[in-house]
Amino acid sequence: MASLLWGGDAGAAESERLNSHFSNLSHPRKNLRGVKSTTVRNIDGSINNIKEDEEDDVVDLAANSLLNKLIRQSLVESSHRVEVLQKDPSSPLYSVKTFEELRLKEELLKGIYAMGFNRPSKIQEMALPMMLAHPPQNLIAQSQSGTGKTAAFVLAMLSRVNALELFPQCLCLAPTYELALQTGRVVEQMGKFCVDVQVMYAIRGNRIPRGTDITKQIIIGTPGTVLDWCFKLKLIDLTKIRVFVLDEADVMIDTQGFSDHSIRIQRALPSECQMLLFSATFEDSVWHFAERIIPDPNVIKLRKEELTLNNIRQYYVLCEHRKDKYQALCNIYGSITIGQAIIFCQTRRNAKWLTVEMIQDGHQVSLLSGELTVEQRASIIQRFRDGKEKVLITTNVCARGIDVKQVTIVVNFDLPVKQGEEPDYETYLHRIGRTGRFGKKGLAFNMIEVDKLPSLMKIQDHFNSSIKQLNAEDMDEIEKIDY
Ligand SMILES: Nc1ncnc2c1ncn2[C@@H]1O[C@H](COP(=O)(O)OP(=O)(O)OP(=O)(O)O)[C@@H](O)[C@H]1O
């Protein structure tokens, strides 16, 4: 039966190879038209050979997710209410304000406190009692990145493991090799005092001979390799799994083949196995997938705070060409005191050109674009966060990923457009918008070539918010801008 299943899925390992997470992370998907190599001097004076790409950087969900994890220093608190949909609406709804209320094993509680967690996060307050209930309950949970989902399901896995039984009992699927490792690190940290509990990674490159007796209790892996380990190599007996976690479901369904692999794995689990699914977003596609894979679930949602343009003053400067845009930028830069600014370009080529121009003019800037590895990107964002550079020039790659609260000025050196010059409203909002909660004022400048003016006007209409024209030659006018 198992081999038949496998035979029907001849492409699991292959599709994982093709998805090639590692290279995806280092080089987000791109159209390689017009690629050539140029030498660029980095801010620190070192020399880098960077490919010159005429095309946009494409947002890579898995890379962004990892980037967020690498640069995040603490919990992202949300003021939004948690919505709960119980499988059995008549059963009482529990929430906990302390970890003690969960009656965890002593060593686990010690691990949690050693990580510096004092009390459950908002989503954990509701999710943990459900996840730790007897009999085990299935759960679908959605809340934005950084709100404590990973810590929650790691806690559930660690609390259900029987350290004396030496076989895989908990199985967690993650979309990429690197994300699996990140989750594994949390298991290792939180389970620091659970000395007999061990983790193993079912990821590409971790070659285990067929029929090996795996004694580790928690397996974290990517769907293709896990499928291999279960059906082809017979390393994991799925009928003995007690907790099945599907993490980053939104990223998972974005990767070809992964939904099918996950469903195939889930089908072979025993009915009493607890099934948990987590996602940062809840579009229809994620929801349909979640419903297919998690039977009789409880559902917890923490709404993401909406972005708004209300507190942002928006201007545009009409320019003839790129040099003209640069001049306008310099005039603005020279006339108002800028704390920190992010400048967005549509292509890597433009971003690189602008970086070189600004450095030559003596500005302290750094360049963040998709050709850098995730670790390099994380380090650049961290330096910017720490105020080591005042200006960050970037492409779309980090438009959605980063939250640098001290930035009050955003410059669209190029307007975000989709193919066919249709404005990209969502990206515009993500670049400039703020959540209402922080309520901070902000300034946005759009450098617009004449032929892009209709697109800008569409953006103005779409958001029903005014974008004023600014004469970048008129220093008095610029100096009057107060923010
Ligand atoms: N109860 C808590 N108290 C303090 N810090 C916490 C708590 N829970 C989680 N954290 C910390 O908050 C950060 C975000 O948590 P976590 O990674 O679990 O969020 P997430 O929702 O899984 O994010 P992502 O969607 O990116 O995976 C981590 O640094 C984690 O150590």
Mean pLDDT: 82
* Apparent shape: elongated
How are the strands of the biggest sheet laid out side by side? 3-10-4-9-8-5-7-6
CATH H level, superfamily name of the largest domain: P-loop containing nucleotide triphosphate hydrolases
Strand content: 15-25%
**Structure annotation, total helices:** 18
CATH C-level class of the largest domain: Alpha Beta
Calculate Rg over CA atoms: 25 Å
The description of the largest β-sheet is: 8 strands, mixed
| Architecture (CATH level 2) name of the largest domain | 3-Layer(aba) Sandwich
Bound molecules: adenosine-5'-triphosphate
- Unreliable spans are 1-54
Overall structural class, as computed from helix and strand content, comes to alpha/beta
Number of domains: 2
The CA-CA distance between the termini, in Å, is 68 Å
Q: Which fold name is given in CATH as the topology of the largest domain?
A: Rossmann fold
What is the tally of beta strands? 19
Percentage of residues in helical conformation: 25-40%
Your description of this structure?
It is elongated and about 75 Å long. The strands form four sheets. An eight-stranded mixed sheet has the order 3-10-4-9-8-5-7-6, sandwiched between helices. The protein has a seven-stranded parallel sheet with strand order 14-15-13-16-18-12-19, with helices on both faces. The chain has a two-stranded antiparallel sheet with strand order 1-2. It has 483 residues and is an alpha/beta fold. The chain is 36% helix and 18% strand. Residues 1-54 have low confidence and may be disordered. The protein has two domains: 59-300, 3-Layer(aba) Sandwich (Rossmann fold), CATH 3.40.50; 310-478, P-loop containing nucleotide triphosphate hydrolases (Rossmann fold, 3-Layer(aba) Sandwich), CATH 3.40.50. The longest helix has 14 residues, at 177-190. Strand 1 and strand 2 (47-52) form a beta hairpin. It has helices at 2-8, 12-19, 21-26, 61-71, 106-114, 122-131, 149-160, 177-190, 223-232, 249-254, 258-267, 284-293, 322-335, 348-360, 374-385, 425-432, 453-463, 475-479; strands at residues 36-41, 47-52, 82-85, 139-142, 170-173, 199-202, 218-221, 243-246, 274-279, 298-302, 307-308, 312-319, 341-344, 365-368, 391-394, 409-412, 434-435, 442-449, 467-469. It contains 18 helices and 19 strands. It binds adenosine-5'-triphosphate (ATP). Adenosine-5'-triphosphate binds at residues 65, 68-69, 72, 74-75, 117, 120-121, 124, 145-151, 280.
